[in-house]
Design brief:
six-stranded mixed beta sheet, alpha/beta, globular, Nitrilase/N-carbamoyl-D-aminoacid amidohydrolase
Length: 494
């Protein structure tokens, strides 16, 4: 280990970037959470000098974060490659710029940790800044460290503290693991830490139970056309994928509800009267939720349309949490001039956000909480549902995210939303992964990535309200208080 420390001092920035890349492997598609824990623990182990300046701490956090986000957000290349001739040149700059910008939160977290003192103080600082990342400038909490646990029993802690709290716990665990090598009775400390980890694991593993659908369960059909982004709006191909969805929707036996993905209607809703008639005919009396763009005056909305057999099709939900640079431009005049106006390039204007989270009551289905794409990334948006729903419905077009990491990471975040709320989720994605997620975050049934087809899923009952669904981020405040007290005790002890 002394050799590693010497190398770390001599090649400090490169070692930190490599450690950041190692930590990122905990996320999908690799899901190597033990490797991620080892990498983070090594970083905290290197922070043995308590006299480091705040500037030095900031630099160490920034380089580590840069490597971490570079590895985690590699899918950011993909949107620029859809129209490679126009936007391809910007791909590497966008990834580097985003990684460097998000790394500022890790740098700030390490500086804050220096003020709090100790490795656990650094963990608290990093956890707090990761939470701020989810809110500042409309927020971007993609890639929270807590998501590495999504397919393990530890993920059930999100029902108490959410993904933000689970991220704090992960930083804290690795800090304590590193700390144990620097205190007396380290064997006892390691044993106690391992025992705590094992107890949490076993408790959450045994507390999970299989959620079976009742005999009279609502059946929902998930339609996945698998339309590549470069062909999705091409007039030569758009109607081919539309006909596929009509065919999938017409298959017997008929479900209680059919759901199509985000923006699956090949033209704006305002001009799609004949297409709506075709959907009604194919559905044979079953209501259909259709993702579609619509216009109102000079604004564009990303919407969910309800097509019912005996009623006019109507808008039931407008996306409210829009994607910066994809659906709207924060600094539109300037960025359009330098070629970053994607929304303007595609549609002539940016999108208008909807009124906010809402619960929609559908006949024969119950209360649904709709989310469109990016909105499922935000724990606070889902916690803001005005009343408790029976099921979360996410429609998305993950063709933008490529085929490697993006769609799998997006799915993992959807799984965590189900755990936080104790509710099942129906997830319908254009290119996948579509499926049913139960209230404990397990994917019960799915259509794989880059496959076309449909599946019928029977909804299980939801859990009782979780602690996190009831109190939201207030539970994290309690977590911060406990860990702060622990940090104080450790500093006195050592």
């Amino acid at each position: 280990m002394s050799v590693f420390r010497v190398l770390a001092r001599k090649y400090s920035w490169s070692v930190l970037v490599i450690l950041g890349l190692i930590i990122s492997t905990g996320h999908a598609p690799f899901s190597l959470w033990p490797v991620s824990l080892i990498g983070l623990s090594l970083f905290f182990w290197l922070q043995q000098n308590h006299k480091l300046s705040l500037k030095s701490r900031f630099k160490s956090g920034w380089w580590l974060g840069f490597g971490y986000f570079l590895g985690t957000l590699n899918w950011l290349l993909e949107p620029f490659l859809v129209d490679i001739a126009t936007h391809g040149w910007m791909a590497p700059f966008a990834v580097l710029l985003m990684s460097g910008s998000l790394a500022l939160f890790w740098g700030t977290g390490m500086s804050l940790g220096g003020l709090l003192g100790g490795r656990l103080g650094c963990a608290l600082g990093l956890g707090l800044c990761e939470m701020v990342r989810g809110y500042l400038f409309t927020g971007f909490p993609w890639g929270l460290l807590g998501y590495i646990w999504v397919d393990t029993p530890i993920a059930q802690l999100a029902s108490y503290f959410g993904a933000y709290g689970l991220t704090v716990v992960t930083f804290g665990f690795c800090a304590l693991l590193a700390q144990s090598f620097y205190v007396r009775r380290k064997v006892m400390d390691l044993a106690a830490l391992s025992l705590l980890f094992l107890v949490v694991w076993l408790f959450n593993n045994t507390s999970q139970h299989t959620h079976q659908a009742p005999e009279n369960a609502t059946v929902i059909r998930l339609v996945q056309p698998n339309a590549p982004q470069e062909k999705k709006r091409d007039p030569q191909f758009a109607m081919i994928y539309f006909q596929k969805m009509l065919e999938f929707s017409s298959q017997a036996p008929q479900p209680d509800l059919i759901v199509w993905p985000e923006t699956s209607l090949p033209t704006a809703f305002n001009f799609a009267a004949d297409l709506i008639l075709q959907i009604k005919e194919a559905a044979q009396g079953v209501p259909v939720l259709v993702g579609a763009l619509r216009t109102k005056e000079d604004k564009i909305f990303n919407s969910l349309i309800l097509v019912e057999p005996q009623e006019d099709a109507k808008v039931v939900y407008d996306k409210f949490h829009l994607v910066p640079f994809g659906e709207y431009l924060p600094f539109e005049n300037f960025l359009t001039k330098i070629g970053l106006g994607f929304s303007s390039d595609l549609f002539g204007t940016g999108f208008q956000n909807g009124s906010g989270p809402q619960v929609v009551n559908l006949p024969n289905v119950g209360k649904i909480f709709p989310l469109i794409c990016y909105e499922a990334v935000f724990p606070q948006d889902v916690s803001a549902m005005p009343e408790r729903a029976d099921v979360i419905v996410q429609v998305t077009n993950d063709a933008w995210f490529g085929k490697f990491s993006g769609p799998y990471q997006h799915l993992a975040q959807a799984q965590m939303r189900s755990i936080e709320q104790g509710l099942p989720m129906v997830r319908v994605a254009n290119t996948g992964i579509s499926g049913l997620i139960d209230p404990t975050g397990r994917v019960v049934k799915k259509l794989e990535l880059n496959k076309s087809g449909y599946i019928d899923v029977a909804l299980p009952d939801g859990e009782l309200s979780t602690l996190y669904s009831h109190y939201g981020n207030w539970t994290i405040l309690l977590l911060f208080i406990v860990l702060s007290m622990g940090n104080f005790i450790l500093r006195i002890r050592h």
